[in-house]
Amino acid sequence: NAGVTQTPKFQVLKTGQSMTLQCAQDMNHEYMSWYRQDPGMGLRLIHYSVGAGITDQGEVPNGYNVSRSTTEDFPLRLLSAAPSQTSVYFCASRDKEEPVQYFGAGTRLSVL
Amino acid sequence: GQSLEQPSEVTAVEGAIVQINCTYQTSGFYGLSWYQQHDGGAPTFLSYNALDGLEETGRFSSFLSRSDSYGYLLLQELQMKDSASYFCAVNAGNMLTFGGGTRLMVKP
To answer: How far is A47 from chain B (nearest CA, A)?
Structure first.
């Protein structure tokens, strides 16, 4: 089992560029989430999904889109990158019956 | 919505015991989780309390009081490798909301 896999690990963007952060899990988990973590801060929920075809907004959804066409994949799209989106992004998944959330290794994004 | 409060930093010596407190306000509550994160790494699950009381997992224990909206993580026999950030998180069903984290520094 690979667990939760995020790509890329590092990315540098220019203001206004768009990109997609990829996330895949091989544990057949229903729930998947995207968080951002700024230096010295906690994790803030961007978007989450409780199953294929179902997504909802978290605390800080502005500037981000998600879709969930399969159980395995949950990509995060930055529509027009801004310096305020410089952060570390974590994807996570969990079984709906279990409290344990598994995190990917993170994507470190810089927007210049 | 949810809000969680925990101390920003705690320092302790190797071999000691340390307690990290967490208070929360939430509109929905299924349980309180604790996660550990080393610098540059991803958060990893430590423990979960759905009911009042103490849960013990090796050197780590976690406590919950639902009536007080309060929990804590207790780390015993501290080791240098325990230096990390510790996050409490409220499980509100579909969502997991994290506190700002407590940075634990273990000194020799």
So the answer is: 10
Question: With 0-12 CB in 10 A as exposed, 13-18 as middle and 19+ as buried, what is A30?
Answer: middle
**How distant is the Cα of B53 from the closest Cα of chain A, in angstroms?**
17
Tell the residue number behind the tokens 């015993």, with chain if given: B76
Sort out which chain B residues have CB atoms less than 8 A from A90's CB and list them. Answer: 42-43
- Tell me the per-residue pLDDT of A53-110, one tens digit each, with 9 for 90 and over: 999 999 999 999 999 999 999 999 999 999 999 999 999 999 988 999 999 999 999 9
- How far, in Å, CA of B88 to CA of B67, rounded? 17
Reported in sequence order, the residue ranges of B26-83 that DSSP labels E, i.e. its strands, are 31-37, 44-49, 53-57, 60-65, 70-75
Q: What is the mean pLDDT of residues A1-10?
A: 92
Close Cβ partners of A36 (under 8 Å, ≥ 6 residues apart): A43, A44, A46, A60, A85, A87, A88, A89, A90
Q: What is residue A107's DSSP assignment?
A: E
Place of tokens 């700024």: A38
Q: What is the pLDDT of residue A1?
A: 66
pLDDT score at A61? 96
